[in-house]
Amino acid sequence: MTLDTAMNPHPQPELRNHTLIVTVSSNDGRPVLDRRAYESLARTFHEAADNDEVRVVVLRGLAGCFCLGGDFSEFLDATKHQKLIAAVTDMFRTLATFPKPILACVDGDAVGVGCTILFHCDMVIASNESTFRVPFVDFGLVPDAATSILAPQKLGYAGAFRFFCLGDTLHAEDARALGLVAEIVHDGVEEATLGRARQLAKKPVAALLQTRGLLKGNTGALCDRIDQEISLFQQALQDDTTLRRLQRIARLAA
Questions:
Q1: How far apart are CA 144 and CA 100, in angstroms?
Q2: What is the pLDDT of residues 47-58, one digit of tens each?
Q3: Residue 66: which of 201, 197, 189 has the closest Cα?
Q4: CA 246, CA 140: separation in Å to the nearest integer?
Q5: What is the spatial distance between Cα 93 and Cα 45, in angstroms, rounded to a whole number?
Q6: Which residues are CB-neighbours of 106 under 8 A, at least 6 positions away?
Q7: What are the beta bridge partners of residue 184?
Q8: What's the longest Cα–Cα distance across the chain?
């Protein structure tokens, strides 16, 4: 399957053989998540949770880039913060409590929330050219999506500290060595991810969901941590020093 972003900048979710394929991007085809994208993702996951035809969800990015993170313009506009925080919180809580397997197909850069979203996926399958970075501390912000719990669990404390506090870029092999990436594919990463999804979709549904639920454990602590992180994130967006730093980074990125 080839993704033609020129013809369709933001492909709609596609259900294929009990696998829901969801593209992570803004509605106007940018590789970032803005408020409307958070709302769209949350709505898609809510509907998928209740749809018996959906047994597995695959998250993918646009061609050559998984996701570059949040939309900086919304961070810098205080009039948008309330709706943005509500949308982000709903999306993260929906991910944390989603009852079905989620696979990620990563081809290219996964930055900020484009990376933290991966910690809610049961398997991350990446191309050998993929990179992973969470520069929250550099921006004067804290991590999101309950990764302050999930990252030490998956990467170990030392690995999580280095990844989040130093802001190091992880290449695919490094990410696999730490445990963030399950498999690296040198050619045809999307086909490989959909192949894994087909394997899961053929499993006895009840046994698969029950086993996943046991492995995930109680998600209540994740939701509490999401709320705590979002509160700290919101406080940081009210800090003048942080705002000046974000404005400077936004100008450099323009």
A1: 21
A2: 999 999 999 999
A3: 189
A4: 8
A5: 11
A6: 61, 66, 118, 124, 125, 126, 127, 130, 132, 181, 189
A7: 126
A8: 53
